Amino acid sequence: MTSTVGYELNDSVATITMDDGKVNVLGPDMQAAINEALDRAEKDSAKAVVIAGNDRVFSGGFDLAVFQSGDAKAAHNMLAGGFELSVRCLTFPAPVIMAATGSAIAMGSFLLLSGDHRVGQPKTKCQAIEVAIGMTIPIAAIEIMRMRLTPAAFHRGAALASIYVGDETITAGWLDEIVEKDQVLASAQTAAAAAAQLHTGSHVATKLKARESALQAIRAGIDGLATEFSLG
């Protein structure tokens, strides 16, 4: 793995840890490193995967420097790569557990929503921040939010950039479980160990059926990114 992503396999559970020393921006390098770790988990026949952040944050989202560079192709590739990563998590051939060690913002929050089970801590902040900073949420992200959040939380989260913290994250659908900060990773790994006992084929076939319409909508959003944002 690269210096930004760690990988560890214990008892058929692969733990992938994002840590760029800052806010775990999901730029091209981080995306590639996570995909490399997921490739390794598949090669190792991992029966469950944990994706965790560092001590500060789960992920602060896309690398804004790429958007600000004026390179339309780079911006398109980063957007597409982020949402392809979400699709990979949503369709991964083993349960995927997200360990929200800290806040999940923008693309970080969409990646969080792409796990089968999501564990956070009392101060984990979940927010689709785009409209607060002058950006329009991509269709692919909207469809991820629509799939996992309650209708009210979806509309507030998308249109008003509402912030969800603590018990609100569970009520809204951002998280499934909240534990103390120092227990997030261990709890996610415990959940992964339990999920590893599932019949893998049945797990995958069922979640693909359950998510079929959402996945089609997300895919259409990815395919239409260049038109949606006039990106070359």
UniProtKB/TrEMBL annotation:
<comment type="similarity">
    <text>Belongs to the enoyl-CoA hydratase/isomerase family.</text>
</comment>
<dbReference type="InterPro" id="IPR001753">
    <property type="entry name" value="Enoyl-CoA_hydra/iso"/>
</dbReference>
<dbReference type="GO" id="GO:0006635">
    <property type="term" value="P:fatty acid beta-oxidation"/>
</dbReference>
<dbReference type="Pfam" id="PF00378">
    <property type="entry name" value="ECH_1"/>
</dbReference>
<keyword id="KW-0456">Lyase</keyword>
<dbReference type="GO" id="GO:0016829">
    <property type="term" value="F:lyase activity"/>
</dbReference>
<protein>
    <submittedName>
        <fullName>Enoyl-CoA hydratase/carnithine racemase</fullName>
    </submittedName>
</protein>
<dbReference type="InterPro" id="IPR029045">
    <property type="entry name" value="ClpP/crotonase-like_dom_sf"/>
</dbReference>
<keyword id="KW-0443">Lipid metabolism</keyword>
